[in-house]
Fold:
Amino acid sequence: MMMLVSFLAGGFIGVMGMALLVAARINEN
Structure:
Protein backbone atom coordinates (compact mmCIF):
# COMPACT_ATOMS: atom_id res chain seq x y z
CA MET A 1 0.00 0.00 0.00
CA MET A 2 2.74 2.46 0.93
CA MET A 3 4.61 1.68 -2.30
CA LEU A 4 1.48 2.52 -4.31
CA VAL A 5 1.03 5.80 -2.45
CA SER A 6 4.69 6.78 -2.92
CA PHE A 7 4.47 5.82 -6.63
CA LEU A 8 1.39 8.01 -7.14
CA ALA A 9 2.99 10.89 -5.22
CA GLY A 10 6.18 10.62 -7.31
CA GLY A 11 4.18 10.63 -10.55
CA PHE A 12 2.18 13.66 -9.40
CA ILE A 13 5.37 15.54 -8.47
CA GLY A 14 6.89 14.60 -11.84
CA VAL A 15 3.87 15.92 -13.74
CA MET A 16 3.88 19.14 -11.73
CA GLY A 17 7.61 19.59 -12.37
CA MET A 18 7.13 19.12 -16.12
CA ALA A 19 4.26 21.64 -16.11
CA LEU A 20 6.45 24.19 -14.29
CA LEU A 21 9.28 23.68 -16.81
CA VAL A 22 6.88 24.18 -19.74
CA ALA A 23 5.41 27.31 -18.13
CA ALA A 24 8.89 28.75 -17.50
CA ARG A 25 9.90 28.05 -21.11
CA ILE A 26 6.73 29.77 -22.40
CA ASN A 27 7.35 32.78 -20.15
CA GLU A 28 10.91 33.17 -21.48
CA ASN A 29 9.73 33.80 -25.04
About this structure: The chain has one helix and no strands. The mean pLDDT is 91. Helices lie at 2-28. The longest helix spans residues 2-28.
